[in-house]
Amino acid sequence: MKIFALTLAALASAQKNKNKNNKNNNYAPTTDAPTTEPNYPGTDAPGPYGGGAGGAYGDPHFMVKSPSQSALCFDFNPSEGTDMNLLVDPLTALSISATAKGRDNGKVFMDSIHFASPGGAHLEFDIDGVHVAGLGDAVVTSAHPLTGAQSYGDINFIEKWSVDGLHEHTKVQIEDGPVFIIKGNLKKESLSFAVEDTEGISNRSRGIIGQFIRDDSYFIADNGDDTATVTSGGMSVEATRENFHHTSNCWVINDEDMLFMMANL
User: Fold this and answer.
1) Which domain holds residue 205?
2) Is the full-model pTM beyond 0.70?
3) Where is the composition biased (Polar residues) (predicted)?
4) Residue at 251 is within a domain
5) Distance between CA 93 and CA 114 in Å, rounded?
């Protein structure tokens, strides 16, 4: 299993705090409720392994990036209770989805994220923590004494804790495959999702994020004056370069135009 890139000091701190807070029941949460705001990926460089990148945040809004193009940003406003396919890879059988939950103010937020791995393991993240299923009597392994890494089938994950015992994020790796980060906002009771490493994701991947992190999935023609034409699947829409939520310098596509383009991919 590839060891995640965290410092030994941070890992030791995470392990110390995790021992006080972690619950290892098979279908029970294994973390305390998420508490931190998401860190938004930059838009001017490819992912850390030279591939695509993508993230889904809060209410929800998205950033996606193919290996050869600048990032695209857009809002997506599903109905309450909608299950959104974030990434589906038919070649590996990896599937990641999120469920939208409505609020009294009329907004919709992602409140749970679901992983189904090639090996049949299921992980669900919600505001209460991590839940596992799908492998019968199998249980989550004990945390590694140095890294804090745990495994459930072919899904490996590390829970990162701050020095004051607060949960910061959970990093998830599919065995010999991609890496993802889950963060949460306790106040808003919402989650965020980011692709950190696209290794092992095929060019047949689909989903709101999956279809745009593939090679040559879209092309941006800069028109000047901070406008561009984005072409994907034979469809073209207009985009404007601007700051988008916490992401700076992103090509922003109107949500209706984005729905039109995704429907024709």
Assistant:
1) 8-215
2) yes
3) 27-38
4) no
5) 14
For the chain, 265 residues long, give each residue's pLDDT as a single digit of tens. 443 433 333 333 433 344 444 433 333 344 333 333 334 344 443 333 345 788 988 778 899 999 899 999 998 888 888 899 999 999 999 999 999 888 777 778 888 999 999 999 999 988 777 889 999 989 999 999 988 999 999 999 998 877 876 667 899 999 999 999 998 776 667 888 999 999 999 999 999 999 999 888 999 999 999 999 999 988 999 999 999 887 788 999 998 999 888 887 6
> How far separated are the first and last CA of the chain, in Å rounded?
35
Q: Is residue 144 part of a domain?
A: yes
Among residues 7, 36, 77, 31, the alpha carbon closest in space to that of 187 is found at 36
φ, ψ dihedrals at 73, nearest 5°: -130, 145
Contacts of 85 (CB under 8 A, 6+ apart): 95, 96, 97, 206, 207, 208, 210
Q: Is 137 part of any domain?
A: yes
CA distances from 247 to 54, 63, 71, 127, 243 (A): 12, 8, 10, 24, 6
